[in-house]
Design goal:
Helices cover 75% and strands 0% of the residues. The protein has 5 helices and no strands. The protein starts with 6 loop residues before the first helix and ends with a helix.
Length: 118
């Protein structure tokens, strides 16, 4: 049986890892072992933080909505309850955007929520 030399696939794999480690500091961009570890960690962090970003954005939207609705005299939970009672189906992302960019229409939504609180 013929002997299989593995230099070419190993070199290709090492090169791919080192390309991904471009921009890392010190030996993490130069040597395969530290670069491999750093790349694996970076991929794990990226996967985790794609999910974390969604949580953080929702928390930011809620904080913005709460601040704007309290200025109109209604806390966040009452605003959301009133909007739900009124049948207004608007998500938190759009509500937060309205609170920041268009305070007039947000104030009208707050009035709708106030009127529909039981």
């Amino acid at each position: 049986m013929a002997r299989v030399k593995r230099g070419v696939p190993a070199h290709r794999r090492h090169k791919a890892i080192l390309d991904r480690a471009k921009g890392f500091r010190l030996s993490k961009k130069l040597l395969f072992r530290p670069a491999n570890e750093a790349v694996l960690h970076a991929l794990a962090y990226a996967f985790r933080d794609r999910r974390r970003r969604k949580r953080e954005m929702r928390a930011l939207w809620i904080a913005r909505i709460n601040a704007a609705s309290r200025q109109s005299g209604l806390p966040y939970n009452k605003l959301m309850h009133g909007l739900r009672q009124a049948g207004v189906e608007i998500d938190r992302k759009v509500l937060a955007d309205l609170a920041v960019r268009d305070s007039g229409s947000f104030a009208r939504l707050v009035e709708v929520a106030k009127n529909n609180l039981s």
